[in-house]
Design a protein that fits this description.
The protein has 240 residues and is an alpha+beta fold. 30% of the residues lie in helices and 35% in strands. The chain is built from 7 helices and 9 strands, in the order βααββααββαββααββ. The chain has an 8-stranded antiparallel barrel.
């Protein structure tokens, strides 16, 4: 399959730009629904810091897109009117191109990520999206546990970048993370006592109405982020 996934982060500075970004959470839909080759997308805000966080970060927004091909994705990022608008208002724009490795669960009733048939064995870098819709009845219990479960993430070895994002505050949340390799991801997932408790509680308490876990191979980036491109030093990834 030639399907690819992109995630783009937008950074804004100043009140006017942040207000524009907030308004575009609604206005951008009229553009995105008409984009050729775009199979699935989600516009998202972000939470402060890393991982799940109920407090909004008004300076960072994200856009996840699933494309029929890389050519159609590049056409959008290079020439589409919507991207011209974003470039005029954002201080930084960073896009990661990814090939799906595996995906479990659903997102708004969809299974958008199809495993790619051509992965690079030399590229060990792994990106992960975890996403959930939290049940209202479980909201207080869930958010009371989040700070403890997220604490080990700050010290995780091999973590290159992470950001908590979401479609709706408190209810529809996701995390995006990039790791140096599958071994580093497994070290965090299975060695962290807090993370293991989170998995246990998820199964026992049924926090989520809907959930998804997806793993990807990042292979190309476009743009930069704050102090630079976090993936630029990785030789297996092309920077354009």
């Amino acid at each position: 399959m030639s399907q690819i996934t992109t995630i783009t982060f937008f950074k804004y500075r100043g009140f006017t730009s942040k207000l524009w970004a907030f308004i575009m959470m609604q206005n951008a839909h009229s553009h995105l629904t008409q984009v050729a080759g775009l199979q699935f997308y989600k516009l998202m805000g972000s939470g402060k810091g890393a991982g799940f966080n109920p407090l909004p970060d008004w300076s960072v927004y994200a856009l996840i897109q699933v494309w029929e091909s890389e050519e159609e994705a590049m056409m959008f990022f290079n020439k589409h009117e919507l991207m011209h608008k974003y470039r005029r208002n954002a201080s930084h724009i960073w896009t990661i191109f990814m090939k799906s490795i595996l995906s479990k669960g659903e997102w708004s009733g969809n299974t958008p990520f199809i495993p790619h048939g051509e992965l690079d064995d030399q590229n060990k870098c792994i990106a992960v999206i975890t996403r959930a819709t939290i049940k209202w009845s479980k909201m207080i219990r869930f958010w009371s546990f989040v700070p403890k479960s997220q604490r080990p993430l700050k010290e995780a070895s091999g973590l290159i970048y992470t950001k908590g994002v979401g479609e709706a505050p408190l209810v529809q949340m996701a995390t995006f993370s990039i790791w140096k390799g599958i071994d580093k991801l497994h070290d965090f997932a299975y060695s962290s006592e807090e993370h293991q408790k989170a998995i246990k509680f998820t199964r026992e308490l049924g926090w989520y109405k809907e959930e998804l876990f997806a793993r990807f191979q990042p292979y190309k980036t476009k743009g930069s982020w704050e102090s630079g491109n976090p993936l630029k030093p990785i030789k297996a990834i092309t920077n354009i």
